[in-house]
Amino acid sequence: MPEAKIIDGKAFAAGLRERVAKEVEKLKSEKGITPGLAVILVGEDPASQVYVRNKGKQTVEAGMNSLEFKMSEDTSQEDLLAKVEELNNNPEVNGILVQLPLPKQIDEQAVLAAINPDKDVDGFHVVNVGRLSTGSKEGLVPCTPLGCTMLLKDHFGGDLSGKKAVVIGRSNIVGKPMFNLLLQESCTVTVAHSRTKDLPEEVSQADIVVAAVGRPEMVKGDWLKDGAVVIDVGINRIEKPEGGTRLVGDVDFESAKERASAITPVPGGVGPMTIACLLANTLTAACQQNGIEAPAL
Ligand code: NAD
Questions:
Q1: How much is the pTM?
Q2: Does residue 235's CB lie within 6 angstroms of at least one atom of ligand 1?
Q3: Looking at the chain, which terminus has fewer C-beta neighbours within 10 angstroms, N or C?
Q4: Which residue ranges form the domains of the chain, and what is each CATH number?
């Protein structure tokens, strides 16, 4: 078996951001509309701060307006809901994202439910979850699984139909929407999780494996069917034997690349797709809110 092709998510994401920027330019010049993305960050979580900064930078680079609202760690739910409502009513804002996790005094579900579903660029509102699971074209789809699907479609030349896929993980953010997206692409999909009886056996049947678990290098190469295509969503920081740390995925990359036909690396695979898809969703939301057909990206 030749070594696996490395699926270059970093390059794909750069191309996607360019396509978004071109469409934004067209929207501005032809319709006078500049899409706007508002991000609310509550508290001082360092990882969230970095992520929000990157989002802001890439939003501006794509030609969109970026609005950032920083609220203190002790913000009340009432105040956060009032901010969401203000942004719901602001016509300059096409996308609203509340950075998770939220401090413990705030009910995450109540906040997600308060976002206007048409501005819910994270795709976590129950209305968008429903739209995705019923195959509605109007919905906004969670960014990370959307990015995984784009990489898979690109790899397979657009057609995933009939493939056997195993998604490992059943979170609302990755696993469940990934299941729905693969089903929409006419895959036969199994969702494995922490209570799955024989995970290696499930994985061994799959043409496509999507790992979204949060356990470093858990999926081993010898679990894979020869020629499987592996999408590794996991981002885990581990200690290096020589000191310091490094990022690894949920898949043991070294053994998996001997067995797979293609695999996403960590970092540089799925990671960069998330913000690129957020920009794509903001563009889609701006088009839909203005009664314009969203461009295919
Ligand atoms: P989560 O903790 O919400 O869900 C993990 C899932 O894994 C659960 O559904 C659980 O049932 C399953 N699981 C746990 N142990 C298991 C086991 N031993 N066998 C099989 N399944 C098991 O996590 P999440 O938010 O879905 O994120 C998963 C991973 O993806 C994390 O590493 C996270 O950092 C990463 N992530 C990356 C991006 C990105 O932009 N690339 C975005 C979101 C999440």
A1: 0.98
A2: yes
A3: N
A4: 31-116 (3.40.50.10860), 142-272 (3.40.50.720)
